[in-house]
Each structure stands twice: as C-alpha cells, then as structure tokens.
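Please fill in the sequence for the structure shown.

STRUCTURE ENCODING:
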C-alpha cells in the first residue's frame, strides 16, 4: 500500500509539473504586448528599445504623473535615438475595470495640469500643457503635450503624452525631444498611440 501511495503521489506531482509547464506559456502570452522601436514616430536616426522591465521607471515612473502608476502589475520599456529623442511606455493591469477607469482619470488630470504645476515648482520655468483630443481605439486614448522653456538656461523641450485603456489594462506613452510643439510629430504620435492600445489585447 505504501508503494502504491508513493507511486500515486509521484504521478500526481509529475502531472502538476506538466500542468505548470503547459500553463507558463499561456500566462506569458496573456501579458500585454509593447511597442517596438520601429513603431515610435519617425526620427532622423533609428530608435532603439530596451527590454521590457517589471515595475515602473525610477522617480515615480511617469513625467507629469510621478507616482500615479502603481509599480505592482506594471511593466515598462524605454526608447531612445542618437539625437536625444526619447520615450517610454508603461503598462499596468488593474484589479478591476473600475480601477482602470480611475487610473485613466488620475493620469489625465495629472497631464492636463502638468504645466502650471511645474511652473509653481520651478519659478524660472515656462511650461504649457495642452490637450489634443481623444483617439477612437478600444476604450479610448487621450493625447496631451507639454511645452517647456527654461529662461535661465535658454533651452526648450517638447513632450507628447497619451493615456489609453483596453478593459483592465492601461498604458501611458511619452515621446520627448528638444524643441517646441511645432517640432513635434503629433500626427505620427497619434498613430503610435493607436498601435500601443491595440497591442494591449
């Protein structure tokens, strides 16, 4: 009887092991996909992308929305070119769809109010936030910009942002470089954002 119990236990453990191996690829496949470097807005030098990391980037993760995206159940990828154009995509899977809706609202408010907040925190900085509309993709994506000029240093920077949602999954996409809004590839960024949200499925 003891031999039979041992054999059954061994067989059950082996079956559980096989089930775990079979489940692993399915779980990995269930993770939302990320933008590839080639799907960022066109640049005069090629984009490169890091691997996908767990959590959020340093310093709270998101420009204009620091510490708004929870590190738990989040992943991110950073992008760059040789000419200091850079970007990031952060994606998080919320516990419920209602939580995802709340996160989108929180991020949208942070992006819309980023310019005035930065001016209060940095008296020598001129910063203007602008809203560029909603994109018709899945549950929606909302596009913003931040145009900054440092009076003391004399440099200007432009950033484009988007927040999109598909069910419980929320993604934040940022593009940035030196210059102003006239230099920003707004139409191409919208295409990038639609691609990012479609890849959340």
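FILLED IN BY: designer on duty
SEQUENCE:
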């Amino acid at each position: 009887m003891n031999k039979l119990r041992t054999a059954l236990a061994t067989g059950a453990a082996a079956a559980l092991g096989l089930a775990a191996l079979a489940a692993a690829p399915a779980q990995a496949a269930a993770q939302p996909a990320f933008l590839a470097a080639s799907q960022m807005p066109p640049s005069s030098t090629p984009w490169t992308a890091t691997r996908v990391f767990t959590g959020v980037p340093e310093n709270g993760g998101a420009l204009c929305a620091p510490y708004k995206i929870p590190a738990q159940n989040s992943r991110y990828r950073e992008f760059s070119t040789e000419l200091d154009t850079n970007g990031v995509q952060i994606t998080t899977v919320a516990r419920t769809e209602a939580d995802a809706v709340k996160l989108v609202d929180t991020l949208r408010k942070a992006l819309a109010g980023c310019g005035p907040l930065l001016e209060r925190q940095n008296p020598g900085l001129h910063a203007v936030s602008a809203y560029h509309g909603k994109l018709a993709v899945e549950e929606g994506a909302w596009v913003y910009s931040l145009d900054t000029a440092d009076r003391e240093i004399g440099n200007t920077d432009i950033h484009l942002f988007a927040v999109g949602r598909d069910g419980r999954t929320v993604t934040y996409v940022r593009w940035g470089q030196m210059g102003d809004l006239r230099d920003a590839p707004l139409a191409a960024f919208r295409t990038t954002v639609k691609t990012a949200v479609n890849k959340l499925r």
